[in-house]
Design a protein that fits this description.
Elements: H1 23-32, H2 38-53, H3 59-80, H4 92-119, H5 126-153, H6 159-174, H7 193-204, H8 215-226, E1 231-233, E2 244-248, E3 270-274, H9 276-292, H10 306-319, E4 331-341, H11 343-355, H12 363-369, H13 375-378, E5 379-385, E6 389-394, E7 407-414, E8 417-418, E9 423-433, E10 437-444, E11 448-456, E12 466-472, E13 483-487, E14 497-500, E15 506-516, E16 520-529, H14 532-542
Antiparallel strand pairs: 1-3, 2-3, 4-5, 4-7, 5-6, 6-10, 7-8, 7-9, 9-10, 11-12, 11-14, 12-13, 13-16, 14-15, 15-16
């Protein structure tokens, strides 16, 4: 039997003195930790499980001690995650605590992988083999939590995560224990190895990088109720072109989309993930919700709003029916590219472009309108391109100045000169260090762009409101209606904005979300005639700045609208660049 290769810390002498190994005393200590002060509790409990992970002991004793940490993890998990709120104004303390929780999650995955590693060569009767079964289930569970934490932070998936998730499931299959039930008490871990594995697969197949913070956990809770309706099959006769995904249990990748047929129906390492029954339940829940205007039982967490629930049902029904994949190839390219970052800077540049249609902006003009101070900050080298996006590199270490999910405005060079047209894009991934420079991937945002200002009705606005970009002349979710890109946290079903910058000021209400990143949101909107009371608030917001109908000429003039003089031939692009973690 092939041995598992798992990433675990090495055992070190002397570590035992740093952790309590008496079960009763360890239980008392864990219960004494102050849950109200996570900045203190998380480092303490992480230190304890870290020391345990680096201490030699029999795997049965380790399993009994780790079980206590599982219970503590559950308490901490419930403190952070069931109260699902979506906000762009997370405090630094909260961000620090989330990073500490991620470290705790990683150590919990280590703890159970060590038990699996120590017990894998000890084949025993079920009564004594229960430690191994439970450890595999919980290891897959915690590795799945780590996946969600990567999705939430908009960071690429470490390659070892899917390698180990697949390997653990394959190992359980060889021992015929993937369906064996184990005790989970009140944990969110599911009670079989296969159920935990399928939940990880379905979350990865839900287009997780386009979900907002909190929405991953809503799917996590939804699947806790209905995961038994998805199945894994080894029978090639179960293959179908929809509601079916291909799993290679020896690979480093998540499940892949179905092609027209299986390459090798007899391949022993291939499994089929079937979602037909689960999709039928989703359709039933959505129909029930539409008929009764209330959430059916056993669906999402009670904190979810109705509009988010409807959006998630529609979103997962689309992605769990068939995998939406890249439709165009990347090609190598060698050219210079100018990049401007951030929605405020981009809106200023868009205003100047509309003012001087067809004229290429000089560096001096860009410097006057943006926060860019040197030509080196503007310049990148393109290394590959597709119809959906572009890969860039720089010899400089730019990571501290670039945010994942931030907007980028790019122009290529033709015959050594900058092109007059710019493309809007979003940063999907980046990597680099001080020795090797920076590499990143941008996904194009197709359409024509128009800068606007949004002023929240009866809200706390910055003077002049916030920057926004109206994207038109493109089809999104089957609709050719315009969308708005603006700051993260701006979308809410009850919000009302005044939008300045089009032909005349209008009232705007957000509608269906299209895309969310850590920096910006994109959503459909509906316009109405501006009410008198909202017009008065608009006047108050812009009274101390230049008129919003004027055209900007310097960095400070960012509160303006512009006449629509965009080039009708502005280049379009496809929205299909590969996301982080899609190996």
């Amino acid at each position: 039997m092939d041995s598992l290769r798992l990433t675990i810390p090495s055992q070190q002498e002397g570590q035992h003195i740093l952790v309590e190994t008496d079960r009763a005393k360890l239980s008392d200590w864990l219960l004494s930790l102050p849950l109200a002060d996570m900045s203190k509790t998380l480092p303490e409990i992480t230190r304890a499980i870290s020391s345990l992970n680096r201490t030699e002991m029999p795997f049965k004793q380790r399993a009994e001690l780790v079980e206590l940490f599982d219970a503590s993890y559950q308490l901490i998990h419930d403190r952070f995650r069931p109260k699902i709120t979506i906000s762009s104004k997370t405090s630094q303390v909260e961000k620090d605590n989330l990073n500490k929780l991620h470290n705790f999650t990683r150590e919990m995955a280590f703890a159970h992988k060590i038990i699996v590693n120590d017990s894998q060569h000890k084949r025993q009767f079920w009564g004594k083999n229960k430690f191994k079964v439970k450890a595999i289930g919980f290891a897959i569970f915690y590795l799945g939590i780590m996946l969600i934490e990567q999705y939430e932070n908009y960071t690429p998936i470490p390659i070892y995560l899917w390698r180990e998730i697949n390997a653990l499931f394959a190992h359980a299959g060889r021992d015929n224990i993937e369906h064996a039930e184990f005790e989970v008490t009140n944990s969110h871990c599911l009670n079989t190895i296969e159920k935990n594995y399928i939940r990880n697969c379905l979350l990865a197949l839900s287009d997780p990088y386009h979900l907002d913070k909190g929405e991953h956990w809503q799917l996590f809770f939804y699947l806790q109720n209905w995961i038994h309706l998805a199945h894994i099959s080894e029978d090639p006769d179960d293959f179908r072109k929809e509601e079916c995904f291909i799993i290679d249990v020896t690979s480093e990748n998540k499940p892949s989309f179905v092609t027209s047929e299986l390459d090798d129906p007899e391949d022993p390492k291939i499994r089929l993930l079937l979602t037909f029954d689960l999709l039928r339940q989703i359709s039933f829940d959505l129909e029930t919700f539409n008929d009764k205007n209330r959430l059916p039982d056993n669906t999402f967490h009670k904190s979810i709003s109705h509009i988010t629930a409807k959006y998630l049902w529609e979103h997962i029904a689309k992605h769990w029916r068939h995998r939406i994949e890249r439709s165009s190839r990347r090609y190598p390219i060698v050219t210079k590219v100018d990049v401007i970052w951030g929605i405020d800077n981009i809106c200023r540049i868009l205003g100047r472009i509309e003012q001087n249609s067809g004229v290429s902006l000089s560096f001096n003009e860009i410097e006057a309108l943006t926060e860019i101070q040197t030509a080196e900050q503007l310049s990148w080298d393109a290394i590959n391109v597709s119809s959906g996006g572009i890969g860039l590199c720089s010899r400089r270490y730019m990571i501290p100045n670039i945010k994942l999910g931030d907007l980028a405005f790019i122009r290529e060079y033709m015959d050594g000169s900058p092109a007059p047209h710019w493309r809007l894009a979003v940063c999907r991934w980046h990597t680099g260090d001080k020795n090797n420079g920076t590499m990143l991937g941008l996904k194009y945002i197709e359409g024509r762009y128009h800068p606007v200002r949004l002023i929240l009705y009866q809200g706390r606005n910055e003077k002049g409101g916030q920057a926004g970009i109206v994207v038109s002349d493109t089809v999104i979710e089957g609709s050719n209606s315009s969308t708005i890109i603006t700051l993260r946290g701006s979308h809410s079903e009850n919000r009302v904005y005044a939008m300045l910058g089009m032909d005349k000021p209008v009232e705007v209400r957000p509608r269906l979300k299209v895309e969310i990143t850590p920096c910006v949101e994109r959503f459909f909107f509906q316009t109405y005639e501006l009410r008198d009371e909202l017009a008065e608030e608009v006047q108050d917001e812009v009274s101390d700045v230049i008129p919003w109908t004027s055209i900007p000429h310097e960095k400070g003039d960012i509160l303006d609208s512009f006449d629509d003089k965009s080039d009708d031939n502005f280049p379009n692009s496809l929205d299909d660049l590969r996301l982080p973690g899609d190996h």
